[in-house]
Amino acid sequence: MKLAPKLVLTILLLLGVLLAAGGGWLTKTDFERNFEQARTQNTLAHRRDTYSLQNGLLAKAGSGEITSQEVADYGSSLGLYVGQEQGGFAVYQDEQVMYSSLPAALGQEAACQAIEAGEEALLLRKAGQNSYMLMASPVQAAGKQYWLVSAYDVTNLFRAREEKFRELFRLELAALALAGTAAALAVSWMIRPLKKLEKASRAVAAGDYTLSTATKSRDEVGALSRSFDAMTATVRDKVDQMEDTILRQKQFVSAFTHELKTPMTSILGYSDLLRSGEMNPEDQRQAVQYIHREALRLETLSGKLMQLMGLVEQEELTLEPVRLVLVLRDTAASLPELAPMLDIRCDPSLTVMADRDLLADLVRNLVINAARAQPKDGRVHITAGRTEEGVALRVADRGRGIPEADLSHITEPFYMVDKSRARAQNGSGMGLALCARIARLHGSELRFTSRLGQGTVVELILREGEE
């Protein structure tokens, strides 16, 4: 059973129990009050009749012995005097009926039971469709004991109680019908956010993370819906990230395979020619140079790839205070063939928080790219200085420049603006990807500014340290 019917049935059950208990208690209280009033009235009437019978019998006793006929005549006259519309009475002597106007349905057994119960004891007896209240009292006259047994019809009391129970039942049914309708509407309104939440959860289970509950209520259900929306948004972001990662991995594998295929094709082609032995010495020398160059490119590519994989797996880096000029000297020492091109301007006392080896490798890759851009002045300019953001390290050239459409992709692995020229210069398309990862490990990003035919500037902001 769903939640809404459960809530409605629970409300109706509680309401029904409360109405039944309250109505039953009120009806019972009202019946007991009316019954007590009837008992008081009937007791007074019975005492009155008892006194009348005793006085009448005492008057008869003054003239001699009281005969059965005299008792019967007096009882008959007393019955005419007090009326017998609501029951009747009987006079007994030694369990013998002297006079009786009791309803025939009661029988002698009921009167005898009233006498056995004692003076003014109350007995309730049902005779046919009617109910009677029986009382008995002794009467002494002429040395004999008589018993007056009175019966009072209280059928109306019980009928009134039954009628009230029926009215209560009808009212309870009407109240439950109205309450059920109101409860169904209220519950339907209250669980509307839950239905939205259920629909959204089914959509999430089916793989759709775009559906939102958009619940504005401030109760617990609203809080649950907002938490669900936040969870869905987080899952959606994670899924998007995973899909983006998978896409980049596919692109990476595709590019890596393509980059491997080109040198391998050249190596296999030239080695096959060399194996045939049908080449002249000059062609053989050229083929060997091609094989050597492509093998070097494969070695460079594999080394860069291993380095990038190691940096990708590394989540954080331990940074230490390093004098920036020492990093730049390490860079120049690792590039003896490019050292004459370097124009380094850096305050010798400038200290940054960095990993010396990785930062030197970053600058080395930037210098190699700048040199390959064929700067017009034949120089690669390296400058460093303090700014409001930190220490700015810049590598600039006045070379070919980079098209604006390529600037957002140049840090992607294997991406090359001019593939033919890059391969001719033994490029792998991995250098800037390594630089971008090293920059992120230093808590920074590479900033590129470039114009075609005027050159490129790469800037990196580092946190200043104390030596």
UniProtKB/TrEMBL annotation:
Transmembrane segments: none annotated. Residues 188-240 form the HAMP domain. One of its GO terms (cellular component) is plasma membrane. It catalyses: ATP + protein L-histidine = ADP + protein N-phospho-L-histidine. Keywords: Kinase, Membrane, Phosphoprotein, Transferase, Transmembrane, Transmembrane helix, Two-component regulatory system. InterPro entries: HAMP_dom, HATPase_C_sf, HATPase_dom, His_kinase_dom, HisK_dim/P_dom, HisK_dim/P_sf, Sig_transdc_His_kin-like_C, TCS_sensor_his_kinase. Its main location: membrane. It comes from the Bacteria. Its EC number is 2.7.13.3. Residues 255-466 form the Histidine kinase domain. It is found in: Membrane. GO terms for molecular function: phosphorelay sensor kinase activity. This is histidine kinase. It comes from Allofournierella massiliensis.
